[in-house]
Design brief:
Elements lengths: L1 E16 L2 E10 L7 E8 L14 E14 L5 E14 L31 H9 L4 E3 L9 E3 L6
Antiparallel strand pairs: 1-2, 1-4, 2-3, 4-5, 6-7
Length: about 160
């Protein structure tokens, strides 16, 4: 599932236990702008860093799963807890995300083009891969045709 909305709030990563970390954020979902909905979502574990490239106010597309579990309290009453667990986020208008601490781009500025002689991923690409829990290696080819291959095994 996915929704498109505006980031309303981004929380800090919380280490819940030795083996579990989460980072909550809120997306304003305005299918009907007169009555916007505010959806509390979370990234968990190694996905928490994905939010570092986004800022409050950005319009994003968030891919998520609905999670639910039962719990029975000491009083014998059964309760159900639900979470909206995000697993991917992207800028809704197709632009690349910018680091939260970076100043906004001037619309008149020219975007730098990738250099074909580069022998590996740029520092920005490497950071995005690290935030996504991936690594990159460079195929041993001439510098003008170097290809980056991710460790997830997908050749593109």
């Amino acid at each position: 599932m996915d929704i498109i909305g505006k980031i309303e709030r981004i929380g800090q990563t919380v280490q819940v236990s030795d083996k579990f970390a989460k980072r909550e954020f809120v997306v304003e979902y305005a299918k009907n702008p007169q009555y916007p909905e505010y959806i509390n979502m979370q990234f968990v574990q190694d996905k928490c860093g994905l939010l570092d490239m986004y800022q409050v106010g950005q319009e994003v597309q968030v891919f998520f799963d609905l999670r639910g579990r039962k719990w029975t309290g000491s009083d014998g009453v059964e309760k159900v807890f639900n979470t909206v667990q995000a697993w991917r986020i992207a800028v809704a208008n197709g632009q690349q995300p910018q680091p939260a601490q970076a100043p906004p781009n001037d619309a008149a500025s020219v975007q730098p083009q990738p250099q074909p002689t580069q022998a590996g991923p740029t520092p920005q690409t490497q950071q995005m891969l690290t935030n996504a829990g991936m690594t990159a290696t460079v195929a041993q080819q001439p510098a003008t045709t170097a290809h980056t291959q991710l460790s997830d095994g997908i050749p593109f």
